[in-house]
Each structure stands twice: as C-alpha cells, then as structure tokens.
C-alpha cells in the first residue's frame, strides 16, 4: 500500500522539484518578513550553520569514506560553495532590505532563462525550440500572477538599488545549478552538501564579523529562532538535496524551469498564510506555468537510472 503512494522513479525528480520550490518560496517570504529583525549576513550565516549542524551526524562518516574523491574535486566544491552558499542567498537577503518582495519574485522568474544560456555556454547544450517556447509560456504565467492579471502593471513597478543585488544573487544560483551537473553520481549528496556548506561558512565569516561589529546580534526571540531554524532545515538541507538529485537526473535546464513555481507558490502561500484572497489570475497563472513546464520537458525516458533512487546506508 505504501509503495503505491510513493512516486515512481520517473516521477520522483519532478516531485522533488515541486517540493523544493515550495520550500524556497517560504525562504523569500520569511526573509522579507524578518528583514527588520535579523541583519542579512547574520541571517545567511545562521541559516547555513543550522544546516551544517543538521547534516553532520549523517554526513560525517560519508565525508570520511569519500575523502579521496572530495579532494580530487576540491576546485568544483570551492566554486559550488562560493556561488551557492556564500554569495547567492546573502545577496538576496541584502537586496530584500532595499527592495520589495514583488520585485524579488519577478526577478526570480529569470533563473530558468539564465540557466538555459549558461548550460549552452558551459556544456554546449543545444536549446530546442520547444524549450524556448515552453519557458516563455511559463514566464508569462509567472508575470500574470505577479501583475494580478493585469500585465500593464509591469510598467508601474518601481525598481531600486536592491534589485541589482537580488538579480546578482539569482545569477549566482544559476551558476550553482549549472555547476551541479558536473558532480559525479558516485559522490554522496550529503557529503557534497556538508562540505560546500562548511566552505561557504568560512567564506562568510569575515563578513559576519564586520556586520556584527556594526549592528550587533539580533534579539533572542522565539520568532527569530524559529525563522533561522526553518531556513536552516527546509530550504537549506531538504530542498537543496532534492534539487541536487533532480538536476543530476533531468539536467540543469529542465530542473531550473520548475523555479517558476517559486513566485506561484509565494502568491498562493500569501493567500493561505496571510489571509489574502486567492483570485482567478492565481489559478490561471498556475495552469499556464504547469503547461509551459510540461511542454518544455519534452519526452521523458520511461526508465530512470537507478542512481536517482535514495542511497541506502
């Protein structure tokens, strides 16, 4: 009975991507909500520190077992840490201190296009016409939700200095996504993630010291603690592991297309959590997004390699 409820090997990477984007939608909403209470670098450092503490009991033995392999790819791990851990979310958190959540969500929709171009530049992956058309359709669905069904509202959006930081952070995430394709299937996901987080924390440490010397520690409140714990467990560990596995199965371009769901889930989440009304354009936008993603994916092989299944240890 339980096996029937679990997704098939073919569907599993798509289920993982939907779950990951749901967690990351919460990341944007929560980071904006807490921007007045926790300084951006402190929030980023606290998030990744919690993530490392959660991972270490599982990953420590795996790191020791795969230490020779990890040493051979230390340069790739360094760049994964630099782009995906130290830089991406830190820039986004700083940007959210100077721009509104609507603008940040809008820019988030640019990631699939960034990844498509980077995949072509780095891996020389040809871009099929259906991928361009599907991505464009999915982007239209995102804009429909953001603009409340009135695309003319795009012209009224006010962009400021924080927008450039958000775009830079999202560009770093796009580079991280493309670099993930080069991580061998034989390498343990927990070990890779733990090592990259540890490296990213070392990179962030000097900036954290500078920030604390200027603004001090955040207040020791239950809301602050709960926010850091959520960011450290769900978007940082569970969602990232799911995303890493999906990228290795589907490739960076297909996986990145699902990032269009982040602003869509953000709009729905605002309706559920903040009491905002769920309008027709939300439903229509979601339908367009899913249609565009489905079309861009093309024909999926009926058989998925066994390496995508969870490793038993």
Automatic annotation (TrEMBL):
Its main location: membrane. Residues 14-146, 161-294 form the EamA domain. The keyword Cell membrane applies. It comes from the Bacteria. Keywords: Cell membrane, Membrane, Transmembrane, Transmembrane helix. The keyword ATP-binding does not apply. The chain crosses the membrane at residues 35-56, 77-96, 102-123, 132-152, 164-183, 190-210, 222-243, 255-273, 279-296. It is found in: Cell membrane. It is a multi-pass membrane protein. Pfam families: EamA. PANTHER family: INNER MEMBRANE PROTEIN YTFF, OS03G0707200 PROTEIN-RELATED. This is Transporter. The lineage of its organism: Bacteria, Pseudomonadati, Pseudomonadota, Betaproteobacteria, Neisseriales.
